[in-house]
Amino acid sequence: GAVVSQHPSRVICKSGTSVKIECRSLDFQATTMFWYRQFPKQSLMLMATSNEGSKATYEQGVEKDKFLINHASLTLSTLTVTSAHPEDSSFYICSARDPKGVGGGQETQYFGPGTRLLVL
Amino acid sequence: AQSVAQPEDQVNVAEGNPLTVKCTYSVSGNPYLFWYVQYPNRGLQFLLKYITGDNLVKGSYGFEAEFNKSQTSFHLKKPSALVSDSALYFCAVSALGAGKSTFGDGTTLTVKP
Fold first, then answer.
1. I want to staple A107 with a disulfide (CB 3.0 to 4.6 A). Which of A3, A91, B32, B63 is the partner?
2. CA distance linking residue B8 with residue B109, whole number of Å
3. pLDDT tens across A51-67, in order?
4. In chain B, what are the helix, strand and coil shares in percent, each to the nearest 5?
């Protein structure tokens, strides 16, 4: 099945620094990737939709200057948390869709393993 | 607009008993429906999906789900629960061309030995 990786799996940083999280589709080309944030024992909150070669579409309430998304290639999207603060500590998950999936398969999202961010 | 409701935050089942995790949805047009499972500190794993065809969909790890159009439901089921099935389960809906899926709030399944 389709595989999506994330790097790093865990990161601890100081307040005020920036952190970059990578999301890669390993065995398919993903024109669309999604970035989610998940708080403990809560559902996924969609932050933004990342489209290869164009600007990301952010959900209401998500600061685009705070959470920079770049989808430079069909297999890589990055999320940069700029000037991180303790309230940015969370579990960040990316997902990707395989546009060549047939019979509605292109709607299936394949998730990365997540990145645990802790800002001190 | 599309939405998903998982009415139960928690489902507790004894090992060996059948389990059901409920999901209802609202979407314009024909729905694409999904179930995902999440283990602690991990990403989501795809379990199964309904796109079209048979209302009963079989997926990974012995799970199945039944699409009921009249009740707009897509409940997840398994005939005999295992302790290892204990996890957080998410239902999701998407409409063709919607661009994104909408996830329910999740249901924590606990299977006790």
1. B32
2. 10
3. 888 889 999 999 999 99
4. 5, 55, 40
